[in-house]
Each structure stands twice: as structure tokens, then as C-alpha cells.
């Protein structure tokens, strides 16, 4: 969520970016002003940030619901990340993948002279302060090349890389050669050496908390369970991987007229979901 808010504000709404920059750490620590004891000032800022972000997204995307227009402001951070997001094992969380893309894109824009040194540093500092990724060991020249070739196929042969220029607005780059991309990547990784964790994010990779898979109230990774049938997608009380009401619920909700194990489904009475006659239209 925070990464997406940086995305929309960096390229389309400077006032919102300024609020994110001002309250960044407090927004994280107070759950966007919703935790007990959070200052009203932070809560008000969070509400304004979210409203502005949603409104700006609607303004930009409502006229283009079928995505016929391919120069999309909200695609900032989504040029190289679609491929790179899935390369690490386990994969990167989406917000961290796009923040790497956004940070790298900002460095590319800075190299071109269309994003000032001051604004470039301000943006990178915000990513770092809130624990978002700006680099990854597997974000390499080879991955950059593969990701570029992949995105050209979905953008009608053009790169259409959205980059901030200046903060609060954006331009689209189409004429970026591989040599320039690689030079920007080299510069970006050099810059990352001066940041905490060399630009790596906090809790950047997917785990079971993203899926809700638990066994006996424990995340799957922390147990020795190997049977996939023992997983429960509901964070609920289960015993030996089985919810006590599971069998009865399954029998009751069976969709076929014969039910389960010969038990008829009382909710259908032998009729299909299309209606009593079982016909459509």
C-alpha cells in the first residue's frame, strides 16, 4: 500500500508526496493513524493521503478502463518489476518489487537530467526510511534485459517507462538503449552502498502471512507438515489440520443433486444452480 501511494504521488500529486515524506515513519508505526494513541495530526494526514491517492487514481484510469491508452502514469514502477518480482525464491512482495523499479527509474531519470539531484535523493530517502526495497542482488543486467523484452510485448513495441520529472509529474521514456539502462543500473547499485542494508527492504519477501495458510494456529513454514491437505486458509482453530465443521459443511453445500456420499443437498433439492428447470435464458 505505501509503495503504491508513493507511486501515484511521485508522478501525479506532489501534495500527497509531501505528506508521505513528512509523516512517513509515523504512518508506519501508527498503522496510518489507526492505532491507539496515534496523534490526530497523523490520522488526518493519513486520511488525506488515502483520499487523494484514490481520487488521483480514478481521475487517471477511469477514462482508460480498457487500457487502450498505453502511456499510463500509474505504470510507474511497473516496467521491469513484473518479471523481477518473481525471480527471487521466495518472490518479492509486490510493493517491494515496484519500489525497486521506481527507485531505479528515478536514477535513470536523474542520469538523463530530467530529475534533479535533490528530488532524486529525497525520493530514495523516503523509500529507505519506510523500509521499502530499492535494490536486490538478483536485479541484474540480464534480468533488466529480459524484463525489457517482456514489457515491449505488452506495450505495443514501446518502452513507455514512466519516470518522475519533476516530482509530482512524469514523462514517458521510449528511447532508452540497453547500454543506458545498464549504466543507470551500475550507478544505482553504487548509490545503494550508502543506504542502510545496501538498499534492501524490510520483510521484502512473501511468506505464509500473505496467504493465511496456518496449521494449528501456526504458519506453515514453522511446522513440519508436508501434506497439503493439512493446510487451512482460514486463521481459525483447527485440529490436526482439520476444521471440526469441515465435513458437515462440505456435505451441506454440495452443488450436485446427489450431494456427497449419497446425502442430498437441502439447498438445491435436486435443481441446478440455473433454476428449477435447469435451463438458461
Walk me through the structure.
It comes from Aureobasidium melanogenum (Aureobasidium pullulans var. melanogenum). Keywords: NAD. Residues 236-281 are annotated as: Disordered. Residues 1-143 form the 3-dehydroquinate synthase C-terminal domain. Residues 262-274 have a biased composition (Polar residues). It is a single chain. The protein is mostly helical and 281 residues long. 43% of the residues lie in helices and 4% in strands. The protein contains 9 helices and 4 strands. It has helices at 2-12, 14-29, 40-61, 81-84, 94-112, 117-129, 141-154, 178-192, 246-252; strands at residues 161-164, 170-173, 214-215, 218-219. It has a two-stranded antiparallel ribbon. β1 and β2 form a beta hairpin. α2 crosses α3 (40-61), α2 packs parallel to α6 and α5 (94-112) runs antiparallel to α6 (117-129). The longest helix has 22 residues, at 40-61. The chain is globular, with a radius of gyration of 24 Å. The two termini are 42 Å apart. Mean pLDDT is 81; it is low at 222-281.
Amino acid at each position: 500500500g505505501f509503495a503504491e501511494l508513493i507511486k501515484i504521488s511521485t508522478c501525479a500529486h506532489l501534495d500527497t508526496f509531501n505528506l508521505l515524506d513528512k509523516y512517513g515513519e509515523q504512518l508506519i508505526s501508527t498503522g496510518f493513524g489507526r492505532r491507539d494513541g496515534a496523534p490526530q495530526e497523523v490520522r488526518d494526514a493519513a486520511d488525506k493521503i488515502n483520499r487523494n491517492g484514490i481520487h488521483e487514481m480514478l481521475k487517471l484510469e477511469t477514462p482508460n478502463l480498457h487500457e487502450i491508452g498505453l502511456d499510463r502514469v500509474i505504470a510507474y514502477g511497473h516496467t521491469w518489476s513484473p518479471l523481477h518480482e518473481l525471480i527471487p525464491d521466495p518472490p518479492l512482495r509486490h510493493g517491494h518489487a515496484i519500489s525497486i523499479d521506481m527507485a531505479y527509474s528515478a536514477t535513470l531519470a536523474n542520469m538523463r537530467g530530467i530529475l534533479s539531484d535533490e528530488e532524486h535523493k529525497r525520493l530514495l530517502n523516503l523509500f529507505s526510511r519506510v523500509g521499502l526495497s530499492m535494490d536486490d542482488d538478483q536485479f541484474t543486467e540480464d534480468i533488466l534485459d529480459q524484463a525489457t523484452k517482456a514489457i515491449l510485448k505488452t506495450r505495443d513495441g514501446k518502452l513507455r517507462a514512466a519516470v518522475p520529472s519533476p516530482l509530482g509529474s512524469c514523462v514517458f521514456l521510449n528511447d532508452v538503449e540497453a547500454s543506458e539502462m545498464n549504466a543507470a543500473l551500475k550507478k544505482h547499485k553504487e548509490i545503494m552502498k550508502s543506504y542502510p542494508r545496501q538498499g534492501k527492504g524490510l520483510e521484502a519477501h512473501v511468506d505464509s502471512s500473505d496467504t493465511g495458510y496456518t496449521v494449528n494456529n501456526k504458519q506453515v513454514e514453522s511446522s513440519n507438515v508436508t501434506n497439503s491437505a493439512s493446510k487451512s486458509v482460514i486463521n481459525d482453530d483447527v485440529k490436526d489440520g482439520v476444521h471440526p465443521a469441515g465435513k458437515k459443511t462440505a456435505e451441506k453445500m454440495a452443488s450436485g443433486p446427489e450431494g456427497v456420499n449419497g446425502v442430498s443437498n437441502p439447498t438445491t433439492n435436486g435443481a441446478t444452480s440455473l433454476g428449477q428447470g435447469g435451463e438458461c435464458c
